[in-house]
Amino acid sequence: MNASSNPILRIEGVGKAFGPVTAVDNVTLDIRENEFFALLGPSGCGKTTLLRMLAGFESPNAGRILLEGKDISPLPPEKRPLNLMFQSYALFPHMTVRQNLSYGLEMERLDKAVIRRRVDETLATTDLTQFADRKPEQLSGGQKQRVALARALVKRPKVLLLDEPLGALDKKLREKMQLELKRMQHEASITFIIVTHDQEEALVMADRMAILRDGRLLQVGAPEEVYERPADRFVANFIGVMNFIEGAVGADGLFRAEGLEVKATGNAGPATLAVRPENIVIGPPGDQPVSGAIVDIAYHGLDRVLHVKTAATATPLQVRIPASGAGNWKIGDALSLKIDPAKCRLFQSIKRGTPCPRPLHSSRKRPSARR
Amino acid sequence: MSFNATRPNLLAAPGVAWLVAFMVVPCVLVLSYAFFQRGVWGGVEYTFTLENFARVLDPLYAKIFLNSARIALTATVVAILIAYPAAYAISRAPRMSQPILLFFAVLPFWSNYLIRTYAWIVLLNREGLINNLLRWLGYTGEPLSMLYTESAVITGLVYNYLPFVILAIYSTLSRLSPELMEASRDLGAGPIRTFLRVTLPLTLPGVAAGGVFVFVLSIGNFVTPALLGGGRFQMVGNLVYDQFLTANDWPFGAALGAALILTMIALLLLQARATAHASGERKGEAAQ
């Protein structure tokens, strides 16, 4: 659907090593104009290093970073039309909110009146007008976060980089700010690249996301794409909740595990079947092909997650059912279940440690994006 | 009274007692001499007078005061100019090597003050190491007279108090988050503007603490001007020393000392208030 029509930022074979440690390994990535892009991965996956290379605080050992077709890798941070919102906010403690915002514009040697007008505008859109004369110490965490965002936005960068921008906020405020950030990104029509380790945050906010692990790019795609068709076992496990069933694909092309058979085509050999909790159908005992027993029930308000022990897996399978009208299941109840073959993924390892995704999804990735 | 309320007072008691017995009492005793007449053969004759204080304001002595202040100020400025880059370099060194670098910066301080000052005589005198080195390098003119000059005094003062200034500035620099400097660069300021608008303003408390320290210790110093200035460059400290030990005019020496101590206290209070103002402001703001 989306041929990389308008890449504002192109990361081309970028690598970075700190001594013997490879932080970023040959990453190639296109970021499109005005998109909300998330770099997602566990801590230490290289996402922050990648962001710092975009901002200019680290220089890549390999590859190029192209902004609108121009290589910006040799430029120092102050010469790049990108701005970074720091995880710690890094507000200047000796300046008021207004002075913090004006600082970046003064560096552009803009006219005083212009600076004043643009700062006033940004203060208004970020709801900070009443705090203009306060020092950072006088602000709450959420307010500081907004000042940090405003200070970067007022520069009207081509790309705004956000390093775990919501990490320091509590859950309620974080959820509110996720939507707020999306709204501001939309209104300012600036390309946002956000770094996060929170997969839920990435799913909620991003137009597209990249999943990194050990410095390598595993998958790039829209949240739905990544959630429904994870490229490998790691992504499948990292995004959302996933049940993994170890088994093998027989000569007949059927996946089999203990007491379980699914029509998921693959090459004969050992394989792992991955299925989301919401894609398992349950019924009374004998109704569905696989039998099991409920060992635990977790109530989540909107839905319930049943933990079902079957012969197929060592850990109970998680099955998500709507909380209302879900029948009267109790711990210890016997039941039967079925896995929808259209809604599961089969991972087969060809070589040790190299997950091989089934070529179900439209893999548009360049070969260089994966090693 | 609860245990918790009394304990801090009890803990402070030995320190306070020490200060009162060996600092406050002797100071008050000596300063009280300033209000009496001098004894004929030294010592004090207990007749009340304010004449000693009037003499302090005599142009002759006021000039020495101002001269001392000028020398101390020069030493302070030079010390800060040397200490700031050094402290900056140490604070930017790898975490592991910072304590070692600081150790070397403070190392001279662990040797005796007099020995260190005499070492400068060896270096600076007409037949000293520097002149010998110059001659060895091919310099044939008159040997430079560096010893017994005002510059020698300033050099000695700077050398002796430099470790304090490095430590004071380092302590503020090391507490400064590197992300603040990065944020400044990110917002479009080059390294120089980043230094002038972010780093320097945020480390001024350290500069002030180190600066006041050098100034206060320099203006009252008498060993360095005596040894490196050769008595030709009198500072207030020498004057006080002379009044007590040479001129046998204890009351006048006490009056000079009082003026000196008042100047120092005023400066220290000013600096303490500036620091308290800065941090108090922060606390007050946070409480809102």
TrEMBL record, chain A:
Lineage, top-rank taxon, reads: Bacteria
Task: State what protein this is by name.
Answer: Spermidine/putrescine import ATP-binding protein PotA
Q: Which GO terms describe its molecular function?
A: ATP binding
Please describe what this protein does.
Part of the ABC transporter complex PotABCD involved in spermidine/putrescine import. Responsible for energy coupling to the transport system.
State the coiled-coil residue ranges.
none
Spell out the family assignment given in the record's similarity comment.
Belongs to the ABC transporter superfamily. Spermidine/putrescine importer (TC 3.A.1.11.1) family.
Q: Name one Pfam family in it.
A: ABC_tran
Enzyme Commission code(s) on record: 7.6.2.11
Q: What class of enzyme is it?
A: translocase
Q: Which gene is this protein's source?
A: potA
